[in-house]
């Protein structure tokens, strides 16, 4: 996969993930072009289209479009299910996710994506395992603070 | 589930985001952002040291602003500071910022790398994963330099946690993609391959992406992955839907992993091991069977996941292209999908069938769906699906259905979407030309094309119809009649006027006998269009007029009158004015003879690659930008005398390296079939390189490494080359070429896109072959891969392949080296499979590599006495092979000697009592044994016959050599 974009029905970009090196200018151009192309399509149309030398796979969930650019030899249908699995992950984590969750917790959306896809390839497809990793990270932050202060305390004692 | 934004919630950030959302206008938003930026900047610059939380909050705000599409030019340092925080969330935000806003500021990169290094060595799996994610997200060269050697170790270490392994595998993949030279698997290779056996499905899922990428580049080193992948796949395919627990997705066991496994297998030829192959075929059959079972769930996710595997399996079947049974089943399955209610499936079925159409086994099966596809072209609501249907019709077209398909495409053109019209026009033009049996059909088709979609008919298309009409005198009268009729329409497209002007100017006389199309009527008809046309067309028409004066002297007065009027002779356009003046003068002062010479009929055009095909390639190619350039250069070329010529000149340019005009019978020049048996006879006194370009003046073609391809001409011998065009409808079973039996260098293959040169050297039982792949086009070839395989028992033969860069730039040449070791004698040749994408289309070629047993000859000198003694020793009937055959090539002594020397044996003088005969001796070196060979060739010049006798210490060698050599003389 070369990149993934999430944008709203109004064409506002909500999340962008690039797996190939591109300049900011190119990224903006691609985004503009693709958002326009995808939004212009009618609901019953097929979820795939050729665009430049890439294949675009997209699906709309409520007000959000999820759009992936894959290479020629990549599989369209499995990409469609990558999108779906990501939506499921967001849904499970946020508890029936909506666009606002992704706007206000954009960093979480990125973290979840990184656990699921890395370098444009599926890293872990088990929903349980991905969520476990995120949960652990969420917990770690608390325990680390404790751990840190314990250390500090010990240093105080022994110094 | 953790309540979102509980402990680490950043209130300030949330407030800021709501503020932005509440902005009523873009200006208000920018104002709010600028205010925030000023605030953050002052905080970062302030004297008071910021605590971690505030730093995190501000960095996060900057990130948000950046993601909104605004530029951010500060805050990088603060983000880097966060990397070394002990608080997980601070570190995490730091990494996120770095991942999104990479800055190649060298000082920062050093700091970032330091932080990453610390985290990688922390042994804390969560930190390690964060660091690996960051490397994978940034993937810069600096990071590759710093970590490419460290990560493989983490990947294969026994004590690495599974989640870290997963990240490490994909991190490495990203680095390999950006800097392949820095990622060296070396000693880790086998342990990486064995990750396919890992207990943890997640590890396998991640690792296989890495293995697939590495296998594409170094297929031989990763060869062992094939059997591992097959057994893993077989376990998944045969598992019940609940066996794999959380890796089962909507009742489909491990769909992602299955797809990736099938994809990995597509990097290799079919498994050679019978058991492995059997198991794989079983898997593929199971997958095809499952498609027929009733669905386990009504959810679309279930059917998508299931069909994703099915399509990947079909891709593999097409890739192997060797199992007719599976290919036909695949085709039937896709046929079912063609009528499925899911648009997505119809789209994919059309796409996949396009590749099936090029396989000889399934081409006919694909053709049976023609009605469904035509129907799709007519009724699909989605343009991208219609486009696929048009592509498929183009792919399934052959002589038997060309008329139907062209007619359907023409009628579709009337309503086709603007975005695809130009491509459709090109395709129709190509099919009409390629499969034209009678050329009046061709002319009709192209004129229809101009009538229906004149605006989209590029210059190439109408140049081409003129070239063909000029070159084929059987169609000229018909063409003149047809354009004359077409021009009767009150409104006709300017392209029609151009074609009409040109053709009537050349061949108007052929229909002038009919009073309805008398010279004057023709002229008036043309001239009635004149004022509506653009300058280049008018210029062309003026030239047509002067040709009329020559063809029909009775029109002279009328035409001179037209030329003389002010709107011509004083036209503000210089070109028109000049033509009017010159033509007027020419017609009044030149004698009839001079006029007839000057305005003679155009000579036939040299056959070149069709300019249209070149255009379609250009259009489909990734470098599609240059199309406009091409058109600009052509716009000037609309005149009569120069027009067609210039047209084909530019066409030649478009055909990239059309410096090799092929005198082809094929109109399109797709296959460059040279005249048969022309060259060798003329070859005078050549030494080794009998068939290459080296003439008598340059006997031993010393081929330098660079410019290798330029040094050699295209194969001049016969069209019987090693070529098997995967996509063609030619005989797909390899016609064995004998061009390389007696020589080691030359052009192995050449078509319009690609030239493959070889250069090889052999010593003892070892050989090295250099393959040079030259891209003849100006567009790069994507996903260029080559695989070498040894069919059947030929595995006794070891071939080591070095990888080729995946892209072959336009005009560029790349080199590949094969090392060859002969283990025992053999008769089949290894196969070289080449795949690449040119434009949208997958090109697939399989060639026989010219490795023959005689390459391992060591010459043996011996005296007459020794020779006959050994000859007698080899007297068992099976040791001898003999053949009497007619001479196919020149019987010239020098030529024969050169060939026999090229064979690798020693040519022995004064051995045979008859000086006309040739005897040779040599030893074939294989790893397992040495085979002594004696050869005797007795020419009979009068009868133009030879008798060839071979005696070898091994019977199979005698037989094989005899077969090989009989074709050489």
From TrEMBL, chain A:
It holds the Pfam family Clat_adaptor_s. One of its GO terms (biological process) is intracellular protein transport. It is found in: Cytoplasmic vesicle membrane; Golgi apparatus; Membrane, Clathrin-coated pit. It is a peripheral membrane protein. The keyword Transport applies. Keywords: Coated pit, Cytoplasmic vesicle, Golgi apparatus, Membrane, Protein transport, Transport. One of its GO terms (molecular function) is clathrin adaptor activity. Coiled coil: none annotated. Residues 1-140 form the AP complex mu/sigma subunit domain. GO terms for cellular component: AP-1 adaptor complex; clathrin-coated pit. It comes from the Eukaryota. PROSITE patterns: CLAT_ADAPTOR_S (PS00989). The keyword Cell wall biogenesis/degradation does not apply. PANTHER family: ADAPTOR COMPLEXES SMALL SUBUNIT FAMILY. Belongs to the adaptor complexes small subunit family. Subunit of clathrin-associated adaptor protein complex 1 that plays a role in protein sorting in the late-Golgi/trans-Golgi network (TGN) and/or endosomes. The AP complexes mediate both the recruitment of clathrin to membranes and the recognition of sorting signals within the cytosolic tails of transmembrane cargo molecules. This is AP complex subunit sigma. It comes from Sphaeramia orbicularis (orbiculate cardinalfish).
From TrEMBL, chain B:
The keyword Coiled coil does not apply. The keyword Cell inner membrane does not apply. One of its GO terms (cellular component) is AP-2 adaptor complex. It is a peripheral membrane protein. GO terms for molecular function: clathrin adaptor activity. A 1,2-diacyl-sn-glycero-3-phospho-(1D-myo-inositol-3,4,5-trisphosphate) binds at residues 11-12, 43, 53, 57-61. Residues 649-663 have a biased composition (Low complexity). It holds the Pfam family Alpha_adaptin_C. It is found in: Cell membrane; Membrane, Coated pit. InterPro entries: Adaptor_Complx_Large_Subunit (IPR050840), AP2_complex_asu (IPR017104), ARM-like (IPR011989), ARM-type_fold (IPR016024), Clathrin/coatomer_adapt-like_N (IPR002553), Clathrin_a-adaptin_app_sub_C (IPR003164), Clathrin_a/b/g-adaptin_app_Ig (IPR008152), Clathrin_app_Ig-like_sf (IPR013041). Keywords: Cell membrane, Coated pit, Endocytosis, Membrane, Protein transport, Transport. Residues 738-850 form the Clathrin adaptor alpha/beta/gamma-adaptin appendage Ig-like subdomain domain. GO terms for biological process: clathrin-dependent endocytosis; intracellular protein transport. Component of the adaptor protein complex 2 (AP-2). Adaptor protein complexes function in protein transport via transport vesicles in different membrane traffic pathways. Adaptor protein complexes are vesicle coat components and appear to be involved in cargo selection and vesicle formation. AP-2 is involved in clathrin-dependent endocytosis in which cargo proteins are incorporated into vesicles surrounded by clathrin (clathrin-coated vesicles, CCVs) which are destined for fusion with the early endosome. PANTHER family: ADAPTIN, ALPHA/GAMMA/EPSILON. Belongs to the adaptor complexes large subunit family. This is AP-2 complex subunit alpha. It comes from Sphaeramia orbicularis (orbiculate cardinalfish).
